[in-house]
Design brief:
The chain is of the alpha+beta class. The protein is built from five helices and four strands. Strand 3 and strand 4 form a beta hairpin. The termini are far apart.
């Protein structure tokens, strides 16, 4: 069965808002203000982008926007913020920061540059993998040769043991004991 390719959702609506946050985050304690600002931003967007049941789970906030809200800490979020809201046909709204700070722009460009360079690194890794595979095959051949040489030495030693068996043996136990006593005295 063929896998169905997921098509990207189509953009239905795109709007720019200045969202007032101060009125809402002043209603809660100092340590909860940034969290409340994020919730209020989601409520505002759900209301103005006409989401079904004003479902806040359908509102997705960009990482840069979230970092900008929490930039000054949890106690002092911005009073208002300018955002760009994009509504897609799958009823999801993505919210982005309009005025991105310069240091964030440069960081984003650096990340994109690194992503572009990674395919080159993958090619190098593929070459390394090929070299490792050839090294592994050479190692296997060397192991096979060692095993074959061990088998040959075992065969030779067995043949020598057989030959020694058939060499003149003392015939009775008395002669054996006599020869063993002689060898022990000679030591």
């Amino acid at each position: 069965m063929a896998k169905e390719k997921k098509s990207e959702p189509k953009l239905i609506l795109e709007r720019e808002y200045i969202v007032p946050l101060r009125r809402e985050w002043l209603k809660v304690g100092m340590h909860k203000r940034a969290n409340r600002a994020v919730k209020e931003l989601k409520k505002f967007i759900a209301k103005h982008m006409k989401l079904y049941d004003r479902d806040l789970r359908q509102v997705k906030i960009d990482q840069i926007l979230n970092n900008e809200i929490r930039f000054r800490g949890m106690k002092k979020p911005p009073a208002k913020i300018k955002v760009l809201a994009k509504k897609y046909d799958n009823n999801i709204v993505k919210v982005e920061l309009v005025d991105i700070p310069n240091h964030v722009k440069f960081a984003r460009l650096r990340e994109e540059k690194i992503k572009k360079e990674t395919p080159k690194a993958e090619v190098k890794e593929e070459k390394k993998v090929e070299k490792q595979e050839t090294d592994e095959s050479k190692q296997k051949e060397a192991k096979d040769k060692e095993e074959a040489s061990k088998e040959e030495t075992m065969k030779i030693s067995k043949e020598q043991a057989r030959e020694q068996k058939h060499i003149a043996k003392p015939q009775n136990s008395v002669e054996k004991s006599f020869e063993t006593r002689k060898s022990q005295k000679g030591r």
